[in-house]
Amino acid sequence: MGVLMTHKLCAAAEGVVLTDDEIAANFGDLHKPLNAIQAMAAADHCIYCYDAPCITACPTSIDIPTFIHQIRTKNVDGAARTILSENIMGGTCARACPTEVLCEQACVRNHGGEEPVEIGLLQRFAIDHLMAKGGKHPFERASATGKRIAVVGAGPAGLSCAHRTAMLGHSVTIFEAKPKAGGLNEYGLAAYKMIDDFAQREVDFLMGIGGIEINYAHPLGGNLSLRELRDTFDAVFLGVGLGNTNRLGLDGEDKHGVLDAIDFIEELRQKRKKADMTVGQDVVVIGGGNTAIDAAVQARALGAAHVTLVYRRGEDAMGATKFEIDLARTNGVVVEPWAKPTAILGGKAVTGMVFERTARDAKSGKLFGTGDTFEVKADMVLKAIGQKLDATALDGLDLAAGKISVLDGFVTNISGVFAGGDCVKSGEDLTVQAVEDGKQAAHAIDAYLKS
Asked: In terms of DSSP bridges, do strands 258-260 and 380-383 run parallel, antiparallel, or are they unpaired?
């Protein structure tokens, strides 16, 4: 896997202001795509094993050996259809999924001390090939059922559910709060993972199935209620994600320069010219997940001289993968585990943070402060300490552990209302899991309507 252009980022640490062209180069493709010759060579590395563990490791159960064999036999369109039949957003997942801890980690090649098959890059090769050709959508709709489905949220779960229910012959109306579809694919992933407006191109490709319309600026609880949707549609799917962010709970959290990392990433993703984005010179990122890594690396890519990522536990407990942590370090991010924030310094604007060293009790496993503190200079603080469900408009729905409660088939306690994606607890908080939730919920909706 490739990494960002580190020599550009190092210049910023020496007080050199990056040019617009240098910043643009820093946001080039994180993983260089395979050409046809490279794809054939990578496909030859797959031994097409029986009962392949890579399939089990994929949350959407893509038949990985089959699509790789199709690439090997130059049936690239067929390979793309094999992928998309299980994961209609396979293009994004090929770019942003942690394949190193999913399908590629399960690859049998690892057992012999070899490099695993480059499954993610091969998946991207096949889907990019099909999308570049254009033409007819690879799947056809079943005969119209006359049933109408409402989908709330045009993120990975909602779009996946919409595509599959449309394919099953139902008519789908998506209600989306933001001005663009895609959810975290559009607003929440690092720009260097989704270059060339891929999130929107994938949405356009998905919509090619027909039978789906999207109403923008329609947040649940604004001009839209769950009761109204239940009265108007035959079934409702909620893919509302996690709309609120957690707070540090410290005085001064409203100081200028203290921001939610997800807002920083969203604003950056919507900047056509990345050099127009404002970034501090001394940036502190608080958190240990992929959002924290994305924020930290992108702050460096924009020209921040110093970026420090602080996490309250050890690296083994971080939500980010080893690849992501190494990516941050390679690009000049200082990673400080075992520290928790205790104070935000400054007047109207932040000037620094105070942290206390932490440790874990050997018996109970609980975290505690050691009393040892240190300061980090900061003119920008990016909080990436998790998101939570906005439940204000979820009238009558059962909740558990801060998420919507669902049974098998993603059924809620309200008849005809289903939910999936980050707003429920179904597995890892990953795009690929949200796609699987939406797909499975679509089949559950279809069975509900038929019964």
From this structure: parallel
Closest CA to 260 of 282, 285, 229: 285
**Residue ranges of domains in the chain:** 36-133, 148-243+389-450, 245-383
User: What is the rounded CA–CA span in Å between residue 63 and residue 56?
Assistant: 9
Region class of 431: left (phi > 0), else alpha (psi between -120 and 50), else beta: alpha
User: Which residues 6+ apart lie within 8 Å of 237 measured at CB?
Assistant: 149, 150, 151, 152, 157, 158, 161, 162, 165, 410, 418, 419, 420, 438, 441, 442, 445
Strand 333-336 relative to strand 339-346, pairing: unpaired
Low-confidence ranges of the chain (pLDDT < 50): 1-11
Residue whose token pair is 């663009």 = 180
CA torsion sign, 325 to 277 to 270 to 121?
A: negative
Q: Where are the alpha helices (DSSP H) in 190-337?
A: 198-207, 226-232, 261-269, 290-302, 322-330
Whole-number pLDDT of residue 3: 39
CA-to-CA separations, 168 to 86, 158, 174, in angstroms, rounded: 14, 15, 16
Superfamily (CATH) of domain 245-383: FAD/NAD(P)-binding domain (3.50.50.60)
The type of residue at 135 is G
CATH T-level fold of 148-243+389-450: FAD/NAD(P)-binding domain (3.50.50)
Which pair of structure tokens corresponds to residue 221? Answer: 């609880």
Closest among 264, 309, 137 to 207, alpha carbons compared: 137
352 in Cβ contact with 373 (< 8 Å): no
Two domains, one topology: 36-133 and 148-243+389-450:
no
Does the pTM surpass 0.70? The reply is yes
Structure confidence at residue 42 (pLDDT): 97
> Are 381 and 257 within 8 A, CB to CB?
yes
| Residue pair 95/199 in contact by the 8 Å Cβ criterion | no
Q: Which residue, 353, 356, 342, is CA-closest to 250?
A: 342
Q: What is the pLDDT of residues 344-359, one digit of tens each?
A: 999 999 999 999 999 9
Q: What is the pLDDT at residue 4? A: 41
Which one is the CATH code of 36-133: 3.40.640.10, 1.20.1250.20, 3.40.50.300, 1.10.1060.10? 1.10.1060.10
Alpha helical stretches, state H, 134-223: 156-167, 184-187, 198-207
Q: How far apart are CA 376 and CA 306, in angstroms?
A: 10
DSSP string of 146-168, one letter each residue:
--EEEEE--SHHHHHHHHHHHHT
